[in-house]
């Protein structure tokens, strides 16, 4: 890949918003206009078919011409495509049960498959072992799924399992551009947290018609009622859990940020997180903050805690206002009586009923044929002993490498990424958070953290060579 572009700031030195590089922004704006105007015109059936292909074409152009910009584009595709799909459905007056538009982010991310076609040096191959092990585990599960289920089920599941790993692998391999990747990601999640948080609050207060239309047609009423103050917020994404998990790294990054928007963005983000009413994400956020503070030096820990005090005051002020206070308070009270909690009891039954069978799935059931709402069991049941060993070994090696780097290199992002990854792993007691959109958080942040470790290691070795 030809990395010709080095600096892709969208803000000038004076702080004004600029749209550079112009060709990349022209592609993005064109895609937005095409999708938005087509949806408003009621051409939902056309948009559903063309959006994935147009997005894929845009992604290819950006990947090869503006590869740093491509990373931000990929994240935004995951942020807003479900929202675009709801608009297309609503204005066309028809419901797409296949959710074809949601294929767009997968295709855009799958472009990173080209990393496997690149020649690997011996050093790059050694550093890539965690990703290669995870990929081999997933490929094993894919072939088992083809045999035991159907090719369609296997391919659909392969997109969920493999795409996030490839994205992280791509970031890790291109470690030379770590600083640009990091800046791009920090900016992306600042604006993503702010804008998705704002829309989430609007969704809760007013229940826009397209969101009501989606909720009524999906019949997933665990997401709430299709009325104002009745929805469990999912913002621009496809469900409350995914939205909540996407907020976690964004909120962590804001704790370390010096941007002027960090406090309002954090307050809005935390309020939206509370309105999702996803308790595992609340606990995951707490875990991530504790891990982050525990891994930083005293000076940075104090800075983060001071930021947290300001944010806590803002969040408490907002969440104590009705109608937010009643909704959030009722959900918090469920922690005190878990025995009467339906979702907690359902998950207990899943583990009691599936634990033994999942542990003794020697061959595995294949991906797409695992256990729902129990992430740990899903990995064991889907991949079997061999695939599971490869996949879990890859994850452990990845975390070990990041942990070592976090101790050695003074980069708060590496610690933030480690905290986000550990948080996501703790939520594996619920749904499988290592695949699909939430998997992109784990593998993407892990891949970029590994890129940071390699970048600083190379810098240190170069300095030693100069001294010698």
TrEMBL record:
Superkingdom of origin organism: Bacteria
Keywords from the UniProt entry: Membrane, Transmembrane, Transmembrane helix
Keyword Transcription regulation: no
Positions of transmembrane segments: 22-41, 46-64, 70-88, 100-117, 129-150, 157-177, 189-208, 267-293, 305-328, 379-401, 413-434, 440-457
Presence of keyword Protease: no
Protein name: Glucose-6-phosphate isomerase
Organism of provenance: Crinalium epipsammum PCC 9333
Source lineage: Bacteria, Bacillati, Cyanobacteriota, Cyanophyceae, Gomontiellales
């Amino acid at each position: 890949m030809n990395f010709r572009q080095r600096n892709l700031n969208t803000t000038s030195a004076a702080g004004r918003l600029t749209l550079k590089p112009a060709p990349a922004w022209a592609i993005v704006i064109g895609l937005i206009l095409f999708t938005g105007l087509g949806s408003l015109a009621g051409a939902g059936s056309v948009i559903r078919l063309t959006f994935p292909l147009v997005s894929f074409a845009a992604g290819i152009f950006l990947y090869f011409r503006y590869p740093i910009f491509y990373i931000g584009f990929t994240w935004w595709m995951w942020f807003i495509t479900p929202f675009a799909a709801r608009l297309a459905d609503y204005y066309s007056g028809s419901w797409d049960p296949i959710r074809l538009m949601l294929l767009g982010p997968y295709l855009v991310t799958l472009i990173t498959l080209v990393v496997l076609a690149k020649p690997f040096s011996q050093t790059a191959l050694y550093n890539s072992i965690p990703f290669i092990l995870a990929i081999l585990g997933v490929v094993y599960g894919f072939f088992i799924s083809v045999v035991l289920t159907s090719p369609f089920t296997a391919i659909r599941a392969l997109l969920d399992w493999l795409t996030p790993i490839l994205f992280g692998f791509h970031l890790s391999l291109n470690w030379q551009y770590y600083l640009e990747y990091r800046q791009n990601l920090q900016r992306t999640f600042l604006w993503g947290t702010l804008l998705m948080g704002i829309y989430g609050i609007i969704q809760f207060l007013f229940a826009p018609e397209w969101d009501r239309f989606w909720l009524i047609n999906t019949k997933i009423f665990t997401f709430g009622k299709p009325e104002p103050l009745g929805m469990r917020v999912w913002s621009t994404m496809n469900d409350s859990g995914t939205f909540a998990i996407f907020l976690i790294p964004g909120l962590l990054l804001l704790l370390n940020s010096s941007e002027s928007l960090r406090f309002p963005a954090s307050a809005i983000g935390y309020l939206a997180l509370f309105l999702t009413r996803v308790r595992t994400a609340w606990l995951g956020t707490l875990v991530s903050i504790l891990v982050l503070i525990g891994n930083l030096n005293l000076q940075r820990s104090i800075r983060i805690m001071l930021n947290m005090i300001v944010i806590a005051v803002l969040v408490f002020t907002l969440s104590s206002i009705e109608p937010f206070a009643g909704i959030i308070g009722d959900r918090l009270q469920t922690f005190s009586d878990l025995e009467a909690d339906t979702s907690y009891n359902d998950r207990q039954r899943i583990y009691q009923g599936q634990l033994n069978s999942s542990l003794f799935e020697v061959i595995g059931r294949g991906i797409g044929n695992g256990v729902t709402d129990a992430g740990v069991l899903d990995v064991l049941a889907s991949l079997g002993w061999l695939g599971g060993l490869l996949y879990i070994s890859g994850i452990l090696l990845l975390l070990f490498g990041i942990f070592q780097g976090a101790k050695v290199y003074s980069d708060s992002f590496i610690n933030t990424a480690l905290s986000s990854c550990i948080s996501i792993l703790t939520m594996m007691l619920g749904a499988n958070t290592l695949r699909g959109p939430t998997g992109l958080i784990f593998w993407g942040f892990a891949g970029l953290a590994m890129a940071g470790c390699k970048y600083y290691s190379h810098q240190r070795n170069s300095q030693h060579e100069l001294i010698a």
